[in-house]
Amino acid sequence: MSLRSLGRLGVAALVIAGALGIAAAPALAADVDLSLSVTGTTIAQSNFGKHLTIDLVNRGTTKPAKASLILDTSEVDASKASVTYDGPGCTSAGKIRTCPLSETSIPGPGATKHFWVQVDLVPNTSQGSAGKITASIKADGDATTANDITTVELKVGSRGPDIKVYADDVTARAENGAITPDPVVPGKITTLPVFVSNEGVKTAQGIKVSIKLPEHAVFVMDKLFDGCFLSADRRTVDCAMSQYNLRPRLVTDSVPTGWSIDLYFDVQVATDAVGPILRGGVVSAGYISPDYGDVDSTDDSDTFVVMVAGPAGTASPSPSASASASPSATSASASPSATSASPSASPSRSASASVTPAASGRGGGGLAITGPTGMVTGGTGLALVMVGTALVVATRRRRADIEH
User: Which of 71, 177, 246, 307 has the smallest count of CB within 10 Å of its CB?
Assistant: First the structure.
């Protein structure tokens, strides 16, 4: 799917500082506010590496015309790890990498863009700290600088599975089933894509996924995956899917396969939903076995919003920092019978899944699954092109990337 460009360019009023003594700068500063955070900074020991995640959130009321993502790796312990982030237009000054973002990579008001940064471990690296990385965002007109920079520690952790989960912000679905960058018209049905991967060194046997939708949005699937349960209010789905195993992503793979899965859920926005944003969507993921803990729990959950068309109003309250949706069956399961491995506009609404090749950190390699109970069969799914650490993003992804 194509990347979303929902941000609206803000127009700041020009106020002449005169008798009124009012400066123009405060009004502009209130409009533009990008913030970032970093998760997934612990790498399983003996792994060749993983993707840490930078979440870029637009907390303002408009979208800046220009923005650059800056990575400072000067404090990374080169004897243990290296960090790579590349793309057209990126420049380096020593250990500082500056990358201009494309218009579609800058989130609109209320939206989030995810960026994947490759961390590679030196062979036989011992557990413990591997240094620090500093990420920052520089955007035109952003005067709220306190949330523009963060420094995190890279760690080499234990040996085990390492689940990462990601959910797109929800936007409109076209008649042909393709997801568009447009907001959802109240009353319409669209698709929530969820991606789960294993970036550890041991197989995750069985996948757990729990999703809670914002208020004024409900799941409308007629059929679910085996092991999934839908709550009475149809806002929460909890899954323990023993039919799906995710093996580690291996550096020896010419085309990595079987280490991630895409899940698709039909969602309907209420006719009385007030735009432009419904907040409070949460997804979490885990595995059924082995019974020891995930190597890195910081990337086991993600938040998302639903973009809504129509008159602006008071959006739903933001979820608390501790919001989560832990797997917990709350109602009887619907019988599975999905027949499509991609979003569909078909009147028969079913959850669907596919195991697919990696695309810039998102998507695992693998084989199409024709339905919730389908067996993995031959084929390579979506095309993958890998040149060094730069991966071509499949068109059905909406994950942010460096200027294309």
Answer: 177
